[in-house]
Structure formats: C-alpha cells, structure tokens
Amino acid sequence: MLSKQWKQNWRHRRVRAKIFGTAQRPRLYVFRSNKHIYAQLINDQVAKIITTVSDFEAKKAKIRDKNFTKKINIAFKIGELIAQKALKKEIKRAVFDRGGYKYHGKVKAVAEGARKGGLIF
Fold it and tell me: Which DSSP string corresponds to the chain?
C-alpha cells in the first residue's frame, strides 16, 4: 500500500515535469498544511521567488468579513492578495502549480481568488 506522502510526491513530480515559470509568466505555487496556506510566484529561470503571501499576511492586513474564519474563504483571500502583488509587479499571467495536491478545496479557492484578482492562467 502506498502512503499519502508518496502519492503526493508522485503527483507533484508529474505536475512539475510539465510546467515552468519564467519572468513574464511565473509559476504560482500553492502549499497547504493542516493549519496554514501559502502562495508564491516563482521564476524558475533564475530560481528566484518573486513574491509570497500567506494566511499570516491576510490576518495582519485585517481583511475580515463574517466568513473569514473558514479556511476556504481565507484561501480565496490569499489568491486575491497574490494577484494584487503580482499586478503591482506588472505580472498579468502565471502558470498554476498545485504542488501535488488535488485541485479542490483550499487549492481551488486560491486559484479562483487569483483569477478574480486579475491573474490569467
């Protein structure tokens, strides 16, 4: 029987074999843990992180509404924040890297938030 970590690592390798971030179209990488969620824009040509957002920043920015305590709503706000930071750096397009996670729940919410914020992918 294969472990969850092995399956996730396998999925992540399969995804990373197909996508590559550049300066004009960086890779939007999503990492989620049991408690937190992070999003990064990465330029793979020079192996540099362009910008990053986490739920810590969202809480510091006091982006509050009555449903902000739900993890999916927080993930949606993370997507919007990463899109705002990207647009400030004049990045309009990105490549979405789900990081081996299945495309549903919090990962999907980050993608939808980034799309609503103005990123195209």
Answer: ---HHHHHHHHHHHHHHH----SSS-EEEEEE-SS-EEEEEEETTTTEEEEEEEHHHHHHTT---TTTTSHHHHHHHHHHHHHHHHHHTT--B-EEE-TTS-SSTHHHHHHHHHHHHT-B-
